[in-house]
Amino acid sequence: MSSERKVIQEATRRVLLKDYLVQESARAGFGGLDIQRTPMGTRVTLICERPGILIGRRGELIKQLTQDIQNRFQLDNPQIEVQEERQPALNAQLMAEKLAATLERGWHFRRAGHSTVRRIMESGARGCQVILSGKLTGERHRTERFKAGMIKYCGEAARNQIQKGFYPARLKPGVIGVNVWIMRPTARMPDEIRIKGASELPKPPVVLPTEDVAPETPPAGAS
Length: 223
Fold this sequence. Notes:
Layout: H1 3-24, E1 30-38, E2 41-48, H2 51-55, H3 60-73, E3 78-84, H4 92-104, H5 109-122, E4 127-134, E5 142-149, H6 155-161, E6 162-170, E7 175-183
Parallel strand pairs: 2-3
Antiparallel strand pairs: 1-2, 4-5, 4-7, 6-7
Helix pairs in contact: 4-5
């Protein structure tokens, strides 16, 4: 088998595994997935808002899930690690799911979009963008964007500093794609420079402005 075919099969397996885990951890609040190959096997890290629902009593549910993905996707000794998302408002995937659920409950898309952006920015994000695509109000497809703060669209900053999440909202007129982009508070741009130890440097003395005093005029007749 050629190396290109192996790469394609591995990428396809990862996509199918992600879709499966999104469905299985929907009640726990799926927030992200990381798959890494280790000498001991395959380590799968799941980020959830409520990890207890996914783990189950005495770890029974997580053991069953591990067995299922091993049989279904033929992974080598899979090991699932569940992490709790302590800042759900700064997780793009979680916010995309919450926004999709809000739309499915009947909220107007503008109200839902502005509310999501406001919640993300109030949590300390440097910037965020919400993109809704689909039949929002009529029979024609349209796209609406809601943005606040700083968002990068290209370059290294867009690849490494922007977290993206997607989730579909299934409504009666059709499916609406919900995309959420978040620049977390810890994001740093390439042009932002911080000098180490700058706070320990002595501050320059403050020089107050002096007033120009006119010379005294000698009295008349004085020598």
